[in-house]
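tool_call predict_complex ligand=phenylalanine
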Amino acid sequence: MSTNNIWTHKGTFLLAAVGSAVGLGNLWRFPYLAGENGGGAFLLIYIVTLCIVGVPILIAEILLGRSSRRSPIMGMRFLSRTHNASRAWESIGWLSAAAALIILSFYSVIAGWALHYTWRMLTGALANADAELASSSFQSLLASPSLLTLYHTLFIAASGLIVGLGVHRGIENGLRLMMPALLAILVVILAYSVMHGNMPAAVDFLLTLQLSDLSFEGWLAAMGQSFFTLSLGMGALMAYGAYMPGEISLSRTALAIVVIDTVVALIAGLAIFALVFGASLDPAEGPGLMFITLPLAFVEMPGGSLVGAVFFILVLGAAISSAISMIEPVAAFLVERFDLTRAQSVTAMVIASWTLGLLTVFSFNVWSSDSPFHDLLGINAFQLMELLTHILMPLGGLMVALFAGWALTHGEIMKELRTSEGWLHTWRFLVRFISPAAVAFVFLRAIPQIDG
Ligand code: PHE
Ligand code: NA
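tool_result ok
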């Protein structure tokens, strides 16, 4: 049974894909990764990775969704059958569903922190805070399982509600409302950071290239980030691609997604570092950059509490539009395969992911230093989820590239891509050889580092 959902408007796929792509990866992860890995050097490797791995696999994944017109698991089952390929390719669908479940579980917990900070900023709880207070306030949030669970529950329920309302009534309408507002907020934040922060220092920090900063760790981080930020290898874009009208140019849309995602990450990075430098704070705080350093920078500036609250609303909105793209592929599968209603399917996915998310919640407090995972693997549950993410997404992406590159016929690719012969051959060469080789190489080199 194939889906009979098609996006209502020509631009909706792009809107939905950008909604999926732009999220915590751009606003939270990219800036701190760049901060930790040498700014300009990281940016350079990141852009190279996007070109040889990100764009080709992005095209491949949307293509598989659109040509199968089914949710990822059923879609891969259908495609492997119609191409006389091994049933093993269906595992692309299963891997991506597992990745969606796992990513949503911790993504929701972290997005919940933004809920907390929106509230803290609005009530002025952090006004006059100093570095010590900002840091201890973050620590006490992490130390509270009940508070973390509350925010986690609110966030995942809101995301589930939108998907539960349906592809058109929930996802399309939600995005059409949310995305322009998020763009407007981003512009406001950028303007504010130019006015009150130290933008030249931020530009210097993010864009100055020092070749000695190039490192293998940087490349590893860039590769992981390009999968995460583009929502690759977990079925989100396959599921959305299944609803994409046939006449829209796939390659042009994919390029637009990558450009927008990268520009948003850059703007967020520049704005955040301008504020951090403007307040003379440390840019290399790591994951705490957004939740410790940035709030501090805001409250030191005129009107900062309000602008800070608006910033955290941006983070929340961007995270919700990503979270719904993690729920949709699995929910669509449950509807197709088991004839459940949409409400039942979404509820099942959300409850499973919520429960798994409790492991992340506890890894910041009751299980922070000793847990069943620690004893077994030497890392806590949150680190385990992150590790699984960085295995599942590249693995899924690798298989997507190989299937699209080797199993699909030239005619099918022509029909979907409808681009010039030259581009078509370039893309096919990339997904057949270059992207898989790059992913495999980074993978193999990374394995000794995991226990190290
Ligand atoms: N791309 C999203 C971000 O940058 C994260 C995400 C990953 C969304 C996987 C969907 C699927 O935040
Ligand atoms: Na992103």
